[in-house]
User: What shape does this take?
Amino acid sequence: MTAVALEDTNPFQSPDTGVSDLLTLARSRTLEDRQRLLMGVMALCDQHPAASQELSPVLTDIFLVLARQAEHDIRKALSERLATASWAPSALVNILALDDIEIARPILARSPILKDEDLLVVLVQASLEHQIEVARRPHLSARVADAILDQAHPAPLTALAGNTTAEISAEGLRRLVEHSRRLAALRAPLARHPRLDESMARQLYSWIGTALRESMAERFAITDIRFDDAVDEAVQSAFSSLGRGTPPPPVEADRDEMDRRLVQKLQAAGQLRPGYLIRAIREKKLGLFQHALVVLGGFTMAQVRACLTHNTPEALYYACAAVGIDRAVFPPLLYEIRQLNGGPPGEAGNAVWLRGALSPQSAARAFRALIGDGTAPAA
Assistant: This one.
């Protein structure tokens, strides 16, 4: 008899007739009646969970005896019915959690009865498929996540990386990133993980493909690390070969020209994106920010410098919105720019970024209307 047939013929739909029918089935010795008895007791528990909790010692014995005698399909139906039951006997839930994976899966995924100790037992005693289901369990604790990391099996690690509700510690997430050096399957879920920080992202960035790099560059303001490193190494190598040691810090005019050329190279390589503006400010490179904004927005340097010295941040917001910087990012970006710029842009005017999003085209028109050609003195 299948689980579906049991549900279709289950007589225990009301408490008035359920007890009488259960007593009749309890006197029977046939396998079919014992299976119907199992489902019937469970139906009554569903209807009266509070009473079920009071009778838990008796119910536990009944369930354990009947469940051990039940066929595979009956145990699977039992697992599905008990997966969300708060009254389910702990001993029975743990038996089902270690059963065949088709039976265990609903319990491992949803049962509120399973505690960390129970899940740790599954990780040690059960199959690889069971371990994967544990790693996928919503709101998995940091303790269990650490145990999965310690075992370091590729498939459970991949499932854990994709479980955005798991309570993975910062150290645990760092360990996952380190595992991704050898396990390519970890890279995509980690690149999208909401708790990935910038230092981890930079480590992961060098191991992922082009498509993931583009999304990470936007999220973390990362350009091609290998390109930046290559530039630095080339400069250092050139000075070393000439016997001049470390290159001297550039003067202001040289720095501006270097910033301009770097931005041009990034643009030519397809690496210049809005996220680079954020990275430049975080790295305290206001000159790079200005040159990148000129190229991305199609503005003149006079216009960009004018918005940075304006008595209101409105023009700077329009310029940033015109190149695709989200308005939610603008307030912290404005704060850092003021720190680098010695105060400006000023605090006059309204916080226009709170009014709603603008299309890039509308923002560009508003910017040019407010700034003009950038040659007029700031208002």
